[in-house]
Amino acid sequence: MSRSMWVLWSALFGLALGVAALAQPVPERSSPFVARIELDGAIGPASAEYFDDAMQRATREGAVAVVLRLDTPGGLAESMRQIVSGILASRLPVLGYVAPDGARAASAGTYILYACHVAAMAPATHLGAATPVSLGGSTPMPSPLGAPAPAGSAEKPAAGNDATHDAEANKVLNDAIAYIRSLAQLRGRDAVWAEQAVRGAATLTADEAVAKHVVDFVAADASALLVQASGRKVRVAGQVQTLQLTGLPLRDYAPNWRTRFLGIITNPTIAYVLLLAGIYGLILEAFHPGAWLPGVVGGICLLIGLYALQLLPVNYAGLALMALGVALLLTEALTPTVGAVGVGGVIAFVLGSIMLFNTGVPGYAVNLGVIAGIAFCAIALLALILRLVMRARRTRPFSGDEQVLQATGELLQAVQPDSESWALVGGERWRVHCETALPAGARVRVLRREGLQLWVAPL
């Protein structure tokens, strides 16, 4: 396909997307409704963008309140704070609702629920375990609120890097405690338990959360949530409002295509696979110049993977180990070292893959099955390279003097004693010199080569 046709098809595709966007119906603002936003899975950049976009649409389209349904194991602190800031700045009351049955609002979800104007939970749900996890390494579990230090353990500052790490961990922990306590005080909820959730990873079931004034009530479904929330007074944008939500319809706000795409590529496993596809695509293009497809696909995958990595909690030591592993495998392929460099490359690649993302952040770890599969493929490729190398070393030479000196041939013409003739050796015509007389068709073997002439003897 010519370049002009590619340009034409690209223009038509862009025009179709624009028409589809313009053709979407605009909801009428005639009757009041309640918007519903659903946060499922790990809290990340895609979740924060989806929440901001849905809140803006709900406000613009005339919603009277927002139901924020939560079912999350936690996620990134930066994304969580972005969502909380959106709730605090909202001109609409936000009703946090942990649902359906069996759902949870753990870690970052606990902060979000505390920030909501009304907090509710479905039966058989739970919340808590909000201890922050350091992106630079493991965070030791702090003692529960008010718990004494273990007997026999002297409390003294560590030296060097340990003291720095402890100070850093304490700063992160105290900042998280102050943050959730401020949210609890703003909404009139239990600040003591909020601190326990951060300091000691405490958790509560739905009924226990109501008893401790962590949430306002338990609601069986969204309709019951609106009925039980009606009549409550909340402060929104500096003004006190009385909620009147009974009987209002719920309108779901699904994420748009951009948010879905961002959610896909920021999945750690997908980002990991995209990164590898990009690297190996460019390597294939380098080994086969002019193929185009591996280079184009690899470049696109690499750029998308790098974009996803800058949104995720990446351990750059793991990324460096992965790059070293790929480089060592390439070195093994180009200059075989009987496996020494290749084995080191596989080990570095696997360790880097495991370290790439901070596994302490809920929902942000590469699937170990994917890592194991790619590592198995790398080992199989290394074994194939070594097998080919060993087989090549055992094969007989097929060029050079060594091959010629092991060759035999057939005289094409009769030869007189100590004279020259022609012979077919190795499928090629050679001028030969022989000390004895031989008839045409006689079999000879090569003794030595002098320039373009072979010295032969009867076989």
From TrEMBL:
Domain NfeD integral membrane: 269-386
Residue intervals of the NfeD1b N-terminal domain: 40-138
Membrane topology note: Multi-pass membrane protein
Keyword terms of this UniProt record: Membrane, Transmembrane, Transmembrane helix
Subcellular location: Membrane
Family matches, as CDD domains: Clp_protease_NfeD_1
Gene3D superfamilies cross-referenced by the UniProt entry: 2-enoyl-CoA Hydratase, Chain A, domain 1, Nucleic acid-binding proteins
Segments forming domain NfeD-like C-terminal: 405-458
Protein name (Swiss-Prot/TrEMBL): Nodulation protein NfeD
Species assigned in the record: Dyella koreensis
